[in-house]
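re the bet — no i am not wrong, look at it urself. input seq straight from the record:
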Amino acid sequence: MKKALKAIAFAILLFTTGITAKAQSDTTDLMPSSKIYLPDYDNKAFHFGFLLAFNEMTFALKTVNDYQSIALPADSWPCGPYNIQNTQCLYVQNIEPLLTSGFTLGITSNIRLGSHFNLRFIPSMSFGERRLHYSIGIQDLEGSISTKELTKNIHSVFVELPINLKYRILRHNNVSPYLMGGINPKIDLASLKRSIGYDSNWIEFIGNFVTKRFDCAAEFGVGLDLYTKWVKLGIEVKISEGLLDVVRAPAFIYTAPIDRLRNRMFQVSVLVE
């Protein structure tokens, strides 16, 4: 995960450097420097548009101390791929959050606060899933340990209500880089209300990985506004870090090693206004 974060941070740095260099160039055929499009656009009080985005969802995970040595009872992994009668105990040997792809749709509203600052409200819906990969050790009655690998998928449909502040750097011809930051309250419509499942005999057991529906995230990112003859296009890269612990299920095999679990999302957006 740390390597992935470093790679994404490096990509953002390259993106920012590239778009800044592009902004200084007067040789583009799409928006030549001799023609200024939408010259009074930024002086208007309100703007509206829409957003299309590609996202990568995952979790920020903090585990309990020395969780690999915690012996869990054999029935703490309901319907797991093992013989419970021949099992003495279970161990979570490793747990790792994975990145998964999704998409976001939204409506943008923009209020001018000054020559450099705008306030934005972008109600959106984000579709995707989060994944946790587990390595689970199974110790039989003779003391031998075998390992099973599995990935737990948590499907999500977030209704997001982000409010952020946009700082626009001085416009150069038809290009204007910017920075943004803010908060994003969100509700996961796909979150399961209960962690109870049923086996083949319709007997209840704790089997679903349940996350809380409500979360609030801090967001920051960089972007580039491109002024064309008809509309303003925005290209934006942002990181969204959840502020709340979202794990809700009772302690069993999937949640026993987790001390704190927060939502994390990376997003590349195209905004049309």
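see?? Residues 19-33 have pLDDT under 50 and may be disordered. told u. also The domain at 2-272 is CATH 2.40.160.20 (Porin). so pay up
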